[in-house]
Amino acid sequence: MEKVVNFIDQVEVDSTDLFPNVESEDAYERIGGTATGGGTFWGLGSLLTKAKGFDELLALAEKGDHRHIDMLVKDIYGGDYKTLGLPGHVIASSFGARFSEADIARSLLFTISNDIGQIACLYAMMHKLNKVYFGGYFLRNHPLSMHTISFSINYWSRGQVQALFLRHEGYLGAIGAFLKGAEGDADKYSWLENYAGSSGLHTQIPTQVQGVSMDQLEIDRGDSAVTYCPLLAHPALYIPDTVDLTQDTEAREYWLRCFEEAAGKYESRAVSSQPISDTAKDRARKFKEKYVSRLQYLKIQPFAYGSLSVRSLLDTIEHYMREFDFPDPYLEQKQQENEKALRLLSKRLQWLDGLEWSPRQEALVTSVLAGNMFDWGAQEVAQLMENTDFGFYEARAKIQARPWLVDYLSQWMERLKGPPHKCAAIFVDNSGIDLVLGIIPFARELLQRGTEVILCANSAPALNDVTHVELVGVLKQVAEICGVIRRGLEEGRLVAMETGQGGPCLDLSRLDQSLAAALQEKVDLVVIEGMGRAVHTNLHAVFTCECLKMAVIKNRWLANRLGGDMFSVICKYEPLVINNITALLPFEIKNTFTSHQTHNNKNKFSFCWI
Q1: What angle, rounded to 10 degrees, do the helices at 331-353 and 468-479 form?
Q2: Range scoring the smallest mean pLDDT among 57-61, 81-85, 281-285, 381-385
Q3: Are 40 and 58 in a shared domain?
């Protein structure tokens, strides 16, 4: 991937607010606007205070207290406001009391922000929209303005309309112009923000020009174009992440603490991956310092870099690893584990072939689950692998006995009694035992049933996950051991394809175009394996074809939260989508899924440029 850093330091303040209604990239219309905006705040603020600069006014507002100048509901109605159904802290009259300059600035900011929020809410409700995106120089990731507008939208819509804010506000025109200019190669490349090099809320990058700071956006150019997975049942509703850490305080506090405690492990792994380098220790130390600093900042401002999830935290690790020149710290570990697993494969296949049909199908699934235990990103499992002789059979003994936490194995086996699938796409996870003793025998069984198989692997390294290049090499070695695999490769019935991704999770809105085309052409079964791809992401993803999700929960806190214990199993088979799609889901998962479907027009939204 190539990195592109874009600096912009001069943008005009918007004087008016525009409200376009956006249905798609090509379908949008202006539905209204207001003359009150950033220019109003600057103009009135300059007249009412000694502050003359826009940022100076915002800084002044941060210090003020609007309650000193604004009259609240409780000030006017006394103790009777509760009978009116009004909260006492709501502003009843702006500029209605005594004041200081800081109070004036804060009150003015609240007045304009509340006005914008109410007008935006009215337009959204008029056009039956449930999302309003805000952008522009007036905001620029300013928490106070964002909070006020969010409060206003939520209050006036009674929680029916959601306020969302674009990152890098104030610079969106320049960013859009850059990406527009790159459209000539849109079929060759894709772009993705690099969290390691981009600024967040109040984290501007100092420059050599005295007194001048700039925001920074760093984006990576991928080597292939990406697109949505064509098998998603509701692509407009698709959200990769199972949990939004900006909304779930308990989960956010746990995962930020968990990743901070694990930072030393990543540092040690980085150093050991480059034993002859004189600079490895220093670079690894800087990696840890920068990553821990980011985690501590996210504790204060969880929305500073947009959405916050386990996926984004894991992706940030990979970004920082590459920034400090540790592109694949698990490379040697993966090679060793592949070689070890390959030595066990022949005997394992012979044992599986000796089983009757039903025991073999169960053994194939439990083999995938046992293999999925070998995840260096799971700290408790990593300790087992470091400190004990932990192998395939030890892993098999660790996983939960049936019935599992989510147990659809019987339904899956019943389906296998029917006609074979045309083509299965298997999104693979870890190298070594997971791939060789888990996924390969599972794919081999499908091939013997007459099903074509696409093994989908990462394009770039992440933890000990197998990459596409590594997968191709392993398959060549497996072909020397197993005739079924060899014939599958020779006949083109077994192929390896890259996903276009480089993280431990799976975002089905950004799949390599070649893979997406293959999925659309012939795939009628999707298999997703691993905690990162099937639990942290895509647990609620619904497809237009059959789907099998398999994972072992290798984190005690998460297992307990899902109602299980350490090493609980998720084996979730979903038949073809039917009218009542949630009827197929377990109760807890069903409730979480349906909570995302309370409104219509999910693919429509209003955009407010301030």
Answers
A1: 40
A2: 81-85
A3: yes
Query: Per the structure block, which two tokens stand in for 19?
Result: 């409200």
pLDDT at residue 597 is higher than 50: no
Structure tokens at 531: 């905690």
Q: E strand or H helix at 426, and its extent?
A: strand 423-427
What is the 3-state composition of the chain as percent helix, strand, coil, each rounded to the nearest 5? 45, 15, 35
Whole-angstrom distance, CA of residue 66 vs CA of residue 145: 13
* Helix-helix angle 440-448:483-491, to 10 degrees: 70
Please count the structural domains in the chain.
3
Cβ atoms 380, 566 nearer than 8 A: yes
pLDDT, residue 40, reads 76
Give the domain-ending residue among 323, 355, 390.
323
CATH code at 198? 1.20.1700.10
pTM of this prediction? 0.80
**Alpha-helix residue ranges (DSSP H) falling in 97-141:** 101-126
Q: Would you give the DSSP letter of residue 163?
A: E
DSSP for 21-70, written as a single string: EESSSS-EEEEEEES-SHHHHHHHHHHHSS--SHHHHHHHHHH--GGGTS
Give the integer Cα–Cα distance in Å for 427 and 50. 61
Partners of residue 218 on adjacent β-strands: 5
Instruction: Look at residue 175 and tell me if it is in a domain.
Output: no
252-292: pLDDT as tens digits: 999 999 999 999 999 999 999 999 999 999 999 999 999 99
Residues 345 and 481 in one domain: yes
d(CA 307, CA 109) in angstroms, rounded, equals 26
Nearest to 464 by CA among 383, 384, 553, 372: 372
Does pLDDT of 530 surpass 60? yes
| CATH number for 478 | 3.40.50.10880
Q: What angle do CA 63, 66, 72 make, to 5 degrees?
A: 160
Sign of the dihedral through C-alpha 376, 380, 386, 390: negative
Find the angle CA(448)-CA(466)-CA(338) to the nearest 5 degrees. Answer: 75
Look-up of token digits 């014939």: 487
Residues 129 and 277 both lie in one domain: no
Q: Which of 374, 483, 490, 383 is nearest to 438 (CA)?
A: 374
DSSP 274: -
> Are the C-beta atoms of 132 and 608 separated by less than 8 Å?
yes
Last residue of a domain, one of 307, 323, 339: 323
List pLDDT tens digits, range 194-236: 877 777 765 554 444 455 566 777 888 877 889 999 999 999 8
- Residue 418 Cα to chain centre, angstroms: 36
Question: Which residues on neighbouring strands pair with residue 406, listed in sequence order?
Answer: 570
Q: What is the pLDDT of residues 531-571, one digit of tens each?
A: 999 999 999 999 999 999 999 999 999 999 999 999 999 99
Beta strands (DSSP E) in 469-577 are 494-498, 511-512, 525-529, 546-553, 568-574
Q: Is 70:94 a contact under the CB 8 Å cutoff? A: yes
Query: Any alpha helices (H) in 372-511, and if so which ranges?
Result: 379-387, 392-398, 409-416, 433, 440-448, 468-479, 483-491
Owning domain of residue 548: 331-577
Q: Between β-strands 525-529 and 546-553, what pairing exists: parallel, antiparallel or unpaired?
A: parallel
